[in-house]
Amino acid sequence: VANPGTDSAYAAIKSPFELSDTRFSAMGSAGIAITEGTAALYRNPAGLAEGSLDIDLPSITFTMYNPAKILSSGVIQDLTSGGNQALDKGLDFLESLGVYNKLFQMDASAGFTAKGFGFGFAIQDIIHTYNGSGSFAASSSLINQMNAVLSLGYGYRFNLPMDYSIDVGLAIRFNYIAFTNTIGAGNVLGMVSGGEGNPFETILQETPMMAGFSIPIDIGVTANMPLGFSVSIAARNINGRYYMTAIDSISEWSRNPFGSGSSNKFTFDSDCHLDIGVAWQWDEAWWFKPTIALDFVDLIGFKDDTSFSFRSFMKHVNIGAEFEFVNSIALRAGLTGGYLSLGLGIDLHVLRIDCSYYWQELGEVAGAKGTDAFAINFKLGW
Asked: Where are the alpha helices (H) located in 82-132, listed in sequence order?
């Protein structure tokens, strides 16, 4: 049994579900107080109270982690040129990633919001890396995590005198999760590089899967004030306990995704987050719309940190800015945990394209282990 609650190799699985959002990742992951539309179902349900019609049919995001290291490793160049060193270069690259890291993530979602109601469905695939020793290529392994999420939410706005208002919202999700046991990175790279043997069949038949579900709840409150100021608080992933079943192999899981009939059961708790955000958004001119956002995230984790330092504090601080021109082009920048993020958005009114390049902290404190990532999103809808 690969239990994230007791086995450190699967620690990343305990993170609450987050749908990748290239707008916010470009803004330093800040924006709790300005979340609206379908994004509110996964970030701050108080944003549903804005009440606008938002339809995603669908939204797809691809995220590549460590792109700078991948390019400098020579793996891609070797594969495209027909070289024979891709396996060795790939192992060296994985060794450089340390104990925990990520390789790739794909998010696909669809949903709509109208008059305070919201509905969304999302699937997600993440490839994690784990190296128990923190070095030596032979100990590198991969973990594939898959999520399928159904979300329902509602938000309501209480209008107050003098342009003040209070938004409250609630979202409930059904989260299905499945993840593999650790898979030796050498076997996977052997498949990619065309090595000897057939490791693909071995992986399918011999790699155990863990599958199960949780039903978490998000609650959010936003205070809207004159001149475009807003303050939000969001409690995310309440009741985030997963009820899991261990399944003998990937092949067996594909036939029985909930592991019905198996007696190998266990549970683990994913993290609950309490986040606070403040923002200023000026929309008095149609041709120019500036936004500034500041978030303090995971107050629960910050409270439980017994070794307070400025670096541990900065890991919980996100700052971002967006400058939108003629309702079509947006330039974004931010700082998350002290790391720079940049992004560009193009709104063609039926098709929206957003991209971001950012750094993400995977260590215990800000500056301990920064990982860069490039994400691009394509969204059909309005």
From this structure: 86-95
